[in-house]
Here is the input.
Amino acid sequence: MTTRPLAKDAAIDIVGRIETRGIDFIPDSERHSKPRDLAWVFFGTQITYGSIVLGALPVAFGLNWWHSFTAIVVGTILGSLAVAGMAIIGPRTGTNSTVSSGAFFGIRGRYVGSFITQVIDLGYFALVLWISTPPVLQGLHRLFGWPTTGPILTVALIIMAVITLGFGILGHATIVAYEKFTAVASMICLALLVYFVLIHWDPPEAAPKLMLGSFWATWAIAMTTQIANAISYAPFAGDYARYTPSASKPRALFGWSLLGMIAGCVIALTCGEIIGLGVQDANAVTSLMITNVPLALIVPILVIGLIGNVSNGGMVVYNGTLDLHAILWRMQRAQVGLIFGAVGLTVGYVGLVVFNLTDSILALCAIVTVLVTPWIMINIIGWVQHRGRFHAQDLQAFAHHRQGGRYWYRGGFNAAAVIAWVLGVGIGLLFTNTSLFVGPLANIAQGVDLSFISSALVASVLYLAIGKISRP
Here is the structure.
């Protein structure tokens, strides 16, 4: 059962037109999506250059075909379970995941989710630009002899950012429709690339050494990167699930979301693994791929770059805009989108052009996993404790300029949830080993990455122990 707030006048959510809803409650009369649409959203967004790079990482770490594949599958399943778990909340609250988290963290405690999601969104928006722009320029260089560095790189970065920003601002209906197109078009292009690699197989003569020396430590870090890829979508499941009817069955929401994430990730990442195994240096998989493919396949490569970038980047912009809207809720969603786009472009430019931070992908994956996993666990546990029942009007209390209500807790914060999240993140960071940060317990298990497991367990146990005291 969901108690609904008064809805605004009928809003716009049509393909090709700017969606007028933001984080406000979506009435059932406007919820035109079905649970299976979630599968298309999560499937289509995986067919990108980013998936090729992430799928090739286990190979670059020194793992063989089978070990790389198992790391992809296990990591994808674990991360996708979190996505599916978060998808069941949106239809009951009628709003995005950040605002929905106010039921567990408190009306002001939702800022914890806003902080996490802005780190993810800005980081992954920059990552999309870093991964997608150089290969597109390399393809244009082979076709037309254009340069790949200097001012042209800056111009290409801006064009990519503007295109993805446009789709993100158009909003929900446009993104859902575009993901269905992407799922088909990009898969055809990706299949052509994989076929070329298979018939021109050119693996290195000697297998690379295991990155961390031992098998299990190397396999664990490879698996963690795949968890981070999938789980990074979990905080945004509500952005799309909120447009499904409130009476949608949790089983259907969970199942379709899980299917879309697992299928999209495993197919795309495995293609990346195959391409990584078939080139001399898996660390430079996209540049080697573009350098060696025949001219006839340059166009498919450019299609993946453009379509995939708009698909994945537009989704990141949309998610980031909604989560920033939870902070700047007095503004219109489109206005907030322009702010997010400007900041994201700045981060992307500084990272790619000024400092060339593309080697920080692993660090971003590790930090994202530690930040978001405890938050997700608290949300899912809270949903179970509340038995799927929410008072949507009280979740929107901040928009009505009032204090109090079912989710006010004490001062707008549920101290139990905030403490559980902080300690979960803190413990996870102790086990983190990245190029940006090395925790004091990073090597306690002979290099095996325990950050993900430890942060999830600590936050879950703490919230179960003390969260009931602070429930409304």
Observations:
- The mean pLDDT is 84.
